[in-house]
Design a protein that fits this description.
The protein is α+β, with helices and mostly antiparallel strands and 270 residues long. It has helices at 10-22, 34-53, 76-82, 85-95, 231-234, 239-244, and strands spanning 25-28, 59-60, 65-68, 100-109, 137-143, 154-156, 178-179, 187-191, 196-198, 207-215, 260-263, 266-269. The protein is globular, with a radius of gyration of 18 Å. The mean pLDDT is 93. The structure holds 2-oxoglutaric acid (AKG) and fe (ii) ion (FE2). 2-oxoglutaric acid is lined by residues 107, 116, 121, 154, 196, 198, 209, 211.
C-alpha cells in the first residue's frame, strides 16, 4: 500500500515556489519510500519488456535511453503517483487550482548512454520565443534510483528559464549546470522552460526515472491524457485524478450571459 505523506505546508510551498521562479528547479528528498520506488521501478521494467516484446522501440541516445509512454493506465502505482498530494500541491500553487496533467512517462538512462541533449519541455518547444514569463508547465522528475553525477542524473542550467527561449545549438555547453543528485524516492520539480538534459550514464546500471508534466488548464496536453483510462477504470477514482486527466473540464461556453475569468486560483465561471 502506498503511504502518502501529508501535502506541503504553506511555508514549504513558498520555498518551492521561490526556487522554481528564481533557479527554475527544487528537489524534495524522500517523497516516497525506497520500497515504493522499488515497486514502481519493477512496474517500469515490466513495461519495458512488454514494449520490446511488442516491437515498440522508443529509444534514443544511441539506443541507450528508453522511454515508456502513457504509463498512467498501465499499473495502479502510477495512478497513485500522478495524483500524489505533494506533487499536486506544488503544481496547484504554480499552475493554478485547475492544473491538468500533460504527460506521464518513464525514462531509463541505460549504461553507457550519452547526454540526452540540452532542451526545454513541451509546450515550450512547440512555441516561438519570447515565451510568456511565469509558468505554463512544470516537470516532475521521480527518482526511482539514487541519482548521481555518474549515472545520468538530470542537469539544469540555473535561471535559464528566464531567457524565455530555447538554447541555441551548443549554447548551453560550458555553462554552469546543477546536477540533480538525490536519493531514490526523491523528486525534482522544474519549470518547463529550464534548459536541461540527462547526463551521460558512466555506470553499469540503468538509471530509472519517471517524468510527470503538468500544465495550466488552458494548454492542450502533450499526450492524450483523457483517454488513458476508460470511464469504467475511472469510475472509482478521485476527482483529482479525473481533473488531472482532463475529464472534469466544463465546456467553456461564453454565451448565455456567462463569463469565464482567470482568477488567482483557476479558471472559473463568474
Ligand atoms: O530523464 C531525465 O533525466 C530527463 C529527460 C528529459 O528531460 C525529457 O525527457 O524531457
Ligand atoms: Fe526534458
Amino acid at each position: 500500500m502506498l503511504k502518502i505523506r501529508s501535502a506541503l505546508d504553506s511555508e514549504m510551498l513558498d520555498r518551492v515556489e521561490h526556487d522554481l521562479r528564481e533557479d527554475g528547479f527544487h528537489i524534495i528528498e524522500n517523497v516516497i519510500t525506497t520500497e515504493e520506488a522499488d515497486e514502481a521501478r519493477q512496474a517500469v521494467w515490466k513495461l519495458v519488456e512488454e514494449d520490446i516484446a511488442n516491437g515498440h522501440d522508443h529509444s534514443y541516445g544511441d539506443g541507450k535511453i528508453r522511454r515508456v509512454w502513457a504509463i498512467v493506465g498501465k499499473a495502479p502505482i502510477f495512478r497513485r503517483f500522478i495524483q500524489h498530494p505533494t506533487v499536486v500541491a506544488v503544481w496547484k500553487r504554480m499552475l493554478g487550482e485547475d492544473v491538468i496533467a500533460s504527460t506521464f512517462t518513464a525514462n531509463i538512462v541505460g549504461p553507457g548512454a550519452p547526454a540526452g541533449g540540452w532542451h526545454i519541455d513541451y509546450p515550450y518547444w512547440a512555441m516561438q520565443a519570447p515565451f510568456p514569463s511565469g509558468s505554463l508547465t512544470g516537470q516532475t522528475v521521480w527518482m526511482l534510483d539514487d541519482f548521481t553525477v555518474e549515472n545520468g542524473a538530470t542537469a539544469c542550467i540555473p535561471g535559464s528559464h528566464k531567457t524565455l527561449r530555447r538554447p541555441e545549438l551548443g549554447e548551453a555547453e560550458g555553462l554552469e549546470m546543477a546536477v540533480a543528485t538525490a536519493p531514490k524516492g526523491s523528486i525534482m520539480f522544474t519549470n518547463g522552460a529550464i534548459w536541461h538534459q540527462s547526463r551521460p550514464n558512466l555506470t553499469e546500471a540503468p538509471r530509472v526515472g519517471l517524468l510527470g508534466m503538468y500544465n495550466r488548464s488552458v494548454i492542450y496536453p502533450q499526450e492524450d491524457m483523457p483517454r488513458q483510462l476508460t470511464d469504467a477504470e475511472l469510475a472509482g477514482e478521485s476527482d483529482t485524478l479525473k481533473q488531472l486527466l482532463g475529464r472534469n473540464i466544463p465546456f467553456r461556453d461564453p454565451d448565455h450571459g456567462q463569463n469565464w475569468h482567470r482568477t488567482d486560483i483557476g479558471f472559473r465561471q463568474v
